[in-house]
Write a structure and sequence with these properties.
This protein is of the alpha+beta class. The radius of gyration is 53 Å and the shape is rod-shaped.
Length: 209
């Protein structure tokens, strides 16, 4: 009986030791698994963060390159704006200019014999009607040589010939006067001509046909 009790006591003690040992094994195994899981998670997160940092650096480099491109485009845009402003100024000045070559050609074709043209100038209209004061008017100054018969008839014919073309909207005899020139008395006249079109090369060509 005593031996059975001793064996039972040893068996219980052994079982308790086994249970404690199993608990320790389970605890350390779980702890090791948890540490391994945490280490794998840490390494995975670290790799993920490193990849994100690389992507961020790549994006920053692209942004920096694109920023340079944007700045270059802005500089070129400002230069283009300045050029456009200059071109608009040049265009306005061009529109204000009169094409003298075709105008002189048309006028020269209609000059009667005995008349000499002396000056072409752009002046404010004085003989034109009030409603046409804002039109572009060219004043033609010429003279007739002394001894010519019917000076006024020749001048009137010149005015009529200039009025027949498609160059001038209106032609007005402004003044006829006598002037001493190199010891000779000449008849000087001023004719005001309203232009139809300052850029009217085609009008001049049509009128000359």
């Amino acid at each position: 009986m005593i031996e059975l009790n001793i064996l039972r006591t040893r068996l219980d003690r052994f079982r308790k030791q086994q249970i404690v040992l199993n608990l320790f094994i389970i605890y350390f195994a779980g702890l090791a698994f948890l540490l391994l899981l945490l280490a794998m998670t840490f390494l995975g997160n670290k790799l993920y963060i490193s990849r994100i940092e690389n992507d961020i650096r790549t994006i920053e480099e692209k942004i920096a390159a694109e920023q340079k491109t944007v700045e270059y485009i802005k500089i070129r845009e400002k230069e283009s704006e300045r050029l456009l402003k200059r071109m608009s100024v040049f265009a306005e000045e061009y529109e204000k200019r009169i094409l003298w070559a075709p105008l002189l050609a048309f006028t020269g074709q209609n000059v009667p014999a005995g008349i000499w043209l002396e000056d072409f100038s752009v002046k404010p209209a004085s003989s034109a009607p009030k409603e046409k004061k804002d039109t572009v008017t060219v004043t033609i100054t010429g003279y007739l040589l002394p001894g010519m018969v019917n000076e006024r008839v020749v001048i009137d014919r010149f005015v009529r010939d200039l009025s027949r073309g498609n160059v001038f909207a209106g032609v007005y005899l402004k003044e006829v006067r006598k002037k001493e020139r190199e010891g000779m008395e000449t008849v000087v006249f001023d004719i005001e001509c309203e232009l139809k079109n300052k850029r009217g090369v085609s009008d001049v060509a049509e009128a000359s046909d």
